[in-house]
Specification:
heterodimer, A: 231 residues, mainly alpha, Ferritin, 6 helices, B: 614 residues, alpha/beta, Nucleotidyltransferase, domain 5, DHBP synthase, 3 domains, five-stranded mixed beta sheet, 20 helices, 22 strands, 34% helix, globular
Chain lengths: 231, 614
C-alpha cells in the first residue's frame, strides 16, 4: 500500500499539476524512464543466471516491461508536441555482480510492487484518454509481475526468510533514498533562492562584461596543451 | 605506457584505453547503459576497456580528460549572465549543474577510479577533436578542421598538424568562439523542424533532400560570410542558452513560419519511383511540410557553404593535400561529400567517431604519443573496438522462450501467427553461416547481424547491423514500419564489398578507402541503381560503406557470398537498434529486438535464430 502522503501527492499531481502546460508529458517521460530502467536491471540481472529456463522467464518479463516503456512513449507523443528527450540519470547495478542473483530480483520485485500501486492509483484518478488506456493494460501486467518475481526468487533458491529480510532491506533503502530526495529538494529550493539573489546582484554588474566577452569572434587564449590536474 | 582517455559531461560519454601505443578498447557508455547519448561518467565503458587489457585503474600511467572544465564553466557562466535580466532560470540551472557536479569532473575521475590527481591530465575540447583526427589519419602532415556545436569556448577551429621528432605537433591557427556556432544553428533548426536536437540532425539532412533551398539567402544573412572566409551568426534569431525550451526566437519564426510539432506529418518518401520527384505518391504534400523541407534544404546548403569557406581559409593558412575533419558536424555525410568534391584538399580523413565520443581516443592517443609510446604515423585503427560477447548461454534459452506469451507484447501494429516459434542452429564455420544467411537474404528476410566487437561511433558497420537485400523497396518499407519505426523520408544506406565497389559507385576508385565508415553520400552507377534502389536517397546517392576483408573479414565474407547469388556484393545495412535506443550491445538486447519486431532471423556470432511458423 502507498503511504498517505504518496497518495495525496499523486492525487494532487493528477488533478492539478498535470493540467499545467508540459507537466503531463514530463510525467509520462518519467514513467517511460522507470519502465526502461526496469528492463535494464532485469537484463543486467540475467547475466547472473545460469539456468536457461530462468533466463527465459526473465527475458519474457523484460519484453513486457519494454512494451510498457513503448506504451508510455506512445502516450508521450500523444500529449507532447516536442520530441522526447532520452533520460540521462546515471544507471548503476543494484548489487555487486558477485552477490547472489536473487538479491537483484528482490529489488526488482519491490520496484514492481511500488510501481503497480502508483500506476493503479493514477489510473483510477485519470479521466479517459490515451494514458488511462495505456495504464489499464500496464497495471494488469504489473500485478502479474509482482507474483512472478516472487516466485522467481523462490526458484532461485532464496528461502522465504531470506526474501523477507531482503525485501525489508530494500524497502528501508528506498525509504532512505526518498528522504535524501526530499532533503535534496529542500536544499534545491534554498540554492535556487540564493543563486537568484546572486544573479540579480552580480549579474547587474557583470552582464556587460559577459556580453563583451561573447562578442569577441575568436578565442584569444591558447588552451591547447596537456595540463595536469595537480598543477 | 597505459593511458585511459575519458569523455563525459555533455553527451556521448566514452572511454578508450591505449597500451604501448595500441588502442586496446574504446566504447561509448550508452551501449552499456541503454540510454542514448548518455552523458554520465562512463563507468561501464571504462570497465570494458580495463577488462579487455586485464588491468585495474591502479595500473594506469595516465588518465586524460577530453576538455577543460574550468574554461567551459567560464563560457557557461558568461552565456548565462549576458542576457541579464531575462536569464535567471538559465543562470540558476547552469550554476547548479556546474557547481554541483561538472566543474569537479577531474576530481570525480580521481575519486571514482581511485587514481592520484597527479596522474590525471586534460586537454581543450577542440584540441581533443584535432588529435583524434590527426593521429589516426596516417598523414605525415595535415590541415585540421573541427566544427561542432561548442566545446570549451570554441565552436569551429583550424589547426595544422605534423610529426616532428617522432611526436605529433599540432598548432592552433584559429578558433571561432561561442556563440558563433554552425553546429548549434543546425541543431536549433533540427529542433524547429520537430526533431530531437543533438540526436536527429540526420533527419534534417535527410529532409533537405526533398526541399528547395528557397530560404538560403535568408540563412546566408543569419550566418554571414565574412571577408576572411570565416562567418558570424546573428544571435537575434536563436536562443542557444535555453535550447530545450525553444532554441529559436520570435524573429526566426517570423522569417520562416511556425515551428513543426513532432507529430505533424512529413509525407516524403525516398522509396518513391522517381517520377514524382521523390515526393510521396500516396499523400499530397502540404505547404507546411514543403516549407519544412525547404528550410532544411536551405540550412544544409548554407552549412556546406560556410564549412567550405572554412576549408578554403584553412588551406590558405596551412597549405596541404591532406585534411582531417572532426567534430559533430563532420557526421553530415552530404557536407563531407561536398568537401571531397570542392575543397582544395586531395585526401580527407574523418575518424570513425568524429563526435564527442571520439575525443576520448584523441586524448589517450595524444598523451601516449607525447610519452613516446606511439610510433609516428603508424596508427590506423578500425572502429571495431567495443565489447564482444559469447552468445552460447543466451542462445541456450531460446528453446525455453514461450513465444505465444511474447505475441501480446510485439511492437505496436505488428502481428505474427499464433504458432510462431523460435529455432536456433549453430554453424561450424563462417562459410556455412554466410551461405545460409545469404539464402535467407535472397528470400527477402530481414536479418539481424550481430558479430564480434561492437563499433565505436554512431555507425553500424557490419557488427551490429540489420540487413536486407537492397533492391526491394517494399521490403525496405516493411523494415521501416515493423522494425525501425523510421520515417519514410529517411533513406537507408548500403555496404558493398571492396571488390565490387567500383562496379557500384560512380566515384574515382582511389576514393574507395575513404568510404570505409559511411561518412560520405556518393552517387551510384546508373546501371546498378535498380539493384540498390531501396538504399538510395531521392537524389540517387547513398551513404556507402566499402567493406574490406582485412577490417571486417566475416561481414566481408557475407557480402561476397551474397554477391555470388545476387550479382553484386551489396546489402542494405541499417543500425541494429530500436527507435529511441542506442545500438544493441549484448546478445540479449539483440534477441529482445528480434522477437518484438518484424525481423525474421537473427545471427549471434555463429548461431542463427529464426522465427518459424508451425
Amino acid at each position: 500500500m502507498l503511504n498517505p502522503i504518496e497518495r495525496i501527492k499523486i492525487k494532487l499531481a493528477v488533478s492539478l499539476g498535470w493540467t499545467m502546460q508540459g507537466k503531463l508529458p514530463e510525467a509520462i517521460r518519467n514513467f517511460q524512464a522507470t519502465e526502461a530502467d526496469g528492463v535494464w536491471h532485469l537484463r543486467r540481472g540475467m547475466r547472473l543466471l545460469a539456468d536457461p529456463r530462468q533466463k527465459a522467464i526473465v527475458f519474457s518479463h523484460s519484453i513486457e516491461e519494454e512494451s510498457h516503456a513503448d506504451e508510455f512513449t506512445r502516450a508521450y507523443h500523444h500529449y507532447g508536441a516536442r520530441p522526447m528527450q532520452p533520460a540521462n540519470y546515471e544507471r548503476a547495478d543494484l548489487y555487486d555482480p558477485k552477490s547472489p542473483a536473487w538479491k537483484t530480483f528482490a529489488f526488482v520485485h519491490v520496484g514492481e510492487h511500488d510501481a503497480t500501486e502508483r500506476f493503479r492509483l493514477i489510473h483510477k484518478e485519470l479521466g479517459n484518454g490515451v494514458l488511462k488506456e495505456s495504464l489499464g493494460k500496464i497495471v494488469a501486467d504489473e500485478e502479474g509481475h509482482v507474483d512472478l518475481t516472487h516466485d522467481l526468487l523462490l526458484a532461485m533458491g532464496a528461502t522465504p526468510g531470506q526474501i523477507k529480510r531482503e525485501i525489508l532491506k530494500v524497502r528501508l533503502k528506498r525509504a532512505w533514498d526518498r528522504w535524501l530526495r526530499v532533503g535534496k529538494g529542500v536544499v534545491d529550493i534554498f540554492a535556487t533562492a540564493l543563486l537568484s539573489l546572486i544573479y540579480y546582484v552580480a549579474g547587474f554588474f557583470l552582464f556587460t562584461a559577459a556580453r563583451r566577452k561573447l562578442s569577441s569572434r575568436f578565442v584569444e587564449y591558447d588552451n591547447n596543451h596537456l595540463k595536469k590536474l595537480s598543477r | 605506457m597505459k593511458v585511459l582517455g575519458i569523455s563525459y559531461g555533455y553527451h556521448d560519454s566514452s572511454a578508450c584505453l591505449v597500451v604501448d601505443g595500441r588502442i586496446v578498447a574504446g566504447a561509448a557508455e550508452e551501449r552499456f547503459t541503454r540510454q542514448k547519448h548518455d552523458p554520465n561518467f562512463p563507468t561501464y565503458a571504462i570497465e570494458h576497456c580495463l577488462e579487455k587489457a586485464r588491468l585495474t585503474p591502479r595500473d594506469l600511467d595516465e588518465v586524460v580528460f577530453h576538455e577543460d572544465p574550468h574554461a567551459k564553466f567560464s563560457r557557461v557562466l558568461c552565456a548565462a549572465v549576458a542576457p541579464f535580466p531575462g536569464s535567471r532560470k538559465e543562470f540558476v540551472n547552469s550554476v547548479k549543474a556546474w557547481l554541483g557536479r561538472k566543474l569537479w569532473s577531474l576530481n570525480t575521475i580521481s575519486k571514482r577510479l581511485n587514481v592520484a590527481p597527479d596522474r590525471i591530465s586534460y586537454l581543450s575540447h577542440h584540441f581533443s577533436h584535432a588529435v583524434t583526427g590527426f593521429i589516426g589519419s596516417g598523414f605525415d602532415e595535415a590541415a585540421i578542421l573541427i566544427v561542432d556545436a561548442v566545446g570549451d569556448w570554441a565552436c569551429s577551429a583550424l589547426y595544422k598538424g605534423a610529426w616532428v621528432d617522432g611526436k605529433p605537433k599540432i598548432d592552433r591557427l584559429l578558433e571561432i568562439a561561442y556563440p558563433n556556432s554552425l553546429g548549434l544553428v543546425y541543431s536549433a533548426v533540427t529542433a524547429y523542424l520537430g526533431f530531437n536536437p543533438n540526436d536527429s540532425e540526420c533527419s534534417t539532412m535527410a529532409l533537405a533532400g526533398f526541399g528547395r533551398p528557397i530560404f538560403a539567402d535568408k540563412i546566408r544573412e543569419i550566418i554571414t560570410k565574412l571577408d576572411d572566409d570565416s562567418y558570424e551568426v546573428d544571435q537575434s534569431y536563436f536562443s542557444f542558452q535555453s535550447f530545450y525550451r525553444g532554441p529559436v526566437t520570435e524573429r526566426f519564426l517570423k522569417a520562416f513560419g511556425p515551428a513543426r510539432a513532432t507529430n505533424d506529418k512529413l509525407p516524403f518518401n525516398c522509396f518513391s519511383d522517381g517520377q514524382s520527384n521523390g515526393h510521396s505518391t500516396e499523400e499530397s504534400i502540404s505547404s507546411d511540410a514543403q516549407r519544412f523541407a525547404d528550410v532544411a534544404a536551405s540550412v544544409q546548403l548554407v552549412l556546406e557553404e560556410r564549412v567550405l569557406g572554412l576549408a578554403q581559409k584553412l588551406h590558405s593558412m596551412a597549405p596541404s593535400e591532406n585534411l582531417c575533419f572532426a567534430g559533430g558536424v563532420s557526421l553530415n555525410c552530404v557536407l563531407n561529400s561536398r568537401l571531397l568534391r570542392e575543397s582544395p584538399f586531395e585526401n580527407i580523413y574523418i575518424p570513425p567517431d568524429p563526435g564527442d565520443g571520439g575525443t576520448a581516443i584523441g586524448a589517450a592517443l595524444y598523451c601516449s604519443a607525447l610519452g613516446g609510446s606511439l610510433a609516428p604515423r603508424s596508427l590506423s585503427y578500425s572502429p571495431y573496438l567495443g565489447a564482444e560477447f559469447d552468445e552460447t548461454s543466451d542462445a541456450a534459452m531460446v528453446k525455453h522462450i514461450k513465444f505465444e506469451h511474447i505475441l501480446g507484447y510485439l511492437k505496436r501494429g505488428l502481428t505474427l501467427p499464433a504458432n510462431t516459434r523460435l529455432t536456433s542452429k549453430t554453424f561450424d564455420s563462417d562459410e556455412a553461416l554466410c551461405e545460409e544467411v545469404s539464402t535467407l537474404l535472397m528470400e527477402r528476410n530481414i536479418v539481424g547481424w550481430f558479430n564480434g566487437r561492437f563499433e565505436l561511433g554512431p555507425r553500424a558497420l557490419g557488427n551490429r547491423s540489420i540487413l536486407v537485400r537492397p533492391d526491394d523497396t517494399a521490403l525496405a518499407e516493411r523494415l521501416s514500419r515493423t522494425v525501425k519505426d523510421r520515417a519514410a523520408f529517411r533513406p537507408y544506406a548500403f555496404s558493398v564489398s571492396e571488390e565490387d565497389a567500383t562496379k557500384a559507385l560512380a566515384i574515382d576508385p582511389s576514393l574507395n578507402r575513404m568510404m570505409r565508415w559511411m561518412q560520405y553520400a556518393v552517387p551510384v552507377r546508373p546501371e546498378i541503381a535498380n539493384q540498390v534502389r531501396a538504399a538510395l536517397h531521392v537524389d540517387g546517392t547513398t551513404r556507402v560503406q566499402v567493406c574490406n576483408a582485412s577490417e571486417n573479414p566475416t561481414y566481408h565474407a557475407l557480402l561476397t557470398t551474397f554477391g555470388r547469388k545476387f550479382g553484386i556484393g551489396t546489402l542494405l545495412n541499417t543500425s541494429f537498434n530500436p527507435s529511441g535506443y542506442p545500438i544493441v550491445a549484448t546478445p540479449v538486447e539483440a534477441m529482445a529486438m528480434f522477437v518484438r519486431t518484424g525481423m525474421d532471423a537473427l545471427v549471434l556470432n555463429r548461431t542463427l535464430i529464426r522465427k518459424e511458423v508451425g
